[in-house]
Amino acid sequence: MITTLIALHTFSKSSSISVTATLGKKPAANVVVWLLGAGKPNPGRFVISQKNKKFDPRILVVPTGSTVSFPNRDEVFHNVFAEYNAKKFDLGMYPKGQSREVTFDKSGVVSVLCNVHSSMSAFVVVVDSAIYGMTNSKGMLTLEDVPKGSYDLLAWHESGVKISEPVTVADAPIKKTLQLKK
Ligand SMILES: [Cu+2]
Known about the structure:
Radius of gyration: 19 Å
Strand order of the largest sheet: 7-13-12-9-10
Strand content: over 45%
Bound molecules: copper (II) ion
CATH superfamily of the largest domain: Cupredoxins -  blue copper proteins
């Protein structure tokens, strides 16, 4: 049994990266983390609802090429607009039950707003990566099934902080602490 475990360990082609993000001395939630160079992005379909005059989820990470729809689930009209790649997109005003969508074909951080309600704000973080995630309320995230190799580990927080650190994945799982601010 012990022999088998050792063999599996030796021949595994991937490992994991556990990230803990802190802001000051507190855990930092909703930090978007991704690996550059670990596979091509696999685009998908995502949803950001407009409910109770809020975008939900407020922060979304998607691989490049993904389409995000913005259904209005409120009784009031909402609008969705943003600057994206120095180009403004504006989905206009639309009522409950309607949805409009945007395809994000280039990486970057998109700040999404509603011109009816100035308090409404969301971020779509578009990443050129197949391996990405977001820290939980404890500031933690584990990226699983990372192929062995060297990458750039990138992180983004809505305060504007960006972090880029080299990381090399070998046999053993890796633990990384990202200090967004001391
Ligand atoms: Cu609105």
